[in-house]
TrEMBL record:
Coiled coil: none annotated. Residues 3-127 form the Nudix hydrolase domain. Belongs to the Nudix hydrolase family. The lineage of its organism: Bacteria, Pseudomonadati, Bacteroidota, Flavobacteriia, Flavobacteriales. PANTHER family: 8-OXO-DGTP DIPHOSPHATASE (PTHR47707), NUDIX HYDROLASE FAMILY PROTEIN (PTHR47707:SF1). This is 8-oxo-dGTP diphosphatase.
Amino acid sequence: MIPHYRVVCAIIHQQDKILAVQRSENMKLPLKWEFPGGKIEPNESEQQCIQREIKEELDIDIEVLQRLNPVLHDYPDFSIELIPYTAKYVGGDLKLKEHAQHRLLDKHELQELDWAEADVPIVEEYLEV
Ligand SMILES: Nc1nc2c([nH]c(=O)n2[C@H]2C[C@H](O)[C@@H](COP(=O)(O)OP(=O)(O)OP(=O)(O)O)O2)c(=O)[nH]1
């Protein structure tokens, strides 16, 4: 049986820009772009998870806004339910703890990145909102 993960990610707006982060070479899905977030821990709500992960990975504070449609995706060695939330940057200096780099992009630039496969439908839905 391959593992299944429930993962929450945040589409964070900072003024008119959206934050994307690139996975490091030593992570799974190396160098793919994603929205910051991570696996839900036992007894944790989706909103608690996203607040915790954003603090751990980026050391910034966000206000969580709206839940978008989750995506189910099968990678060759694991499967995920990826649950996106829109969010607003509220403060703190961004420090990357795990990722290779970050970019703040205009909405129309999002499709130029090499996204993790599970993120592709999320980017597409977000561009329609
Ligand atoms: N955080 C995040 N993870 C994503 C996205 N898209 C996507 O396929 N994933 C995958 C990558 C990871 O395997 C998993 C999220 O787990 P995680 O962020 O806690 O990853 P991790 O550090 O545990 O990674 P690893 O140690 O297992 O290599 O979901 C996304 O947009 N955001």
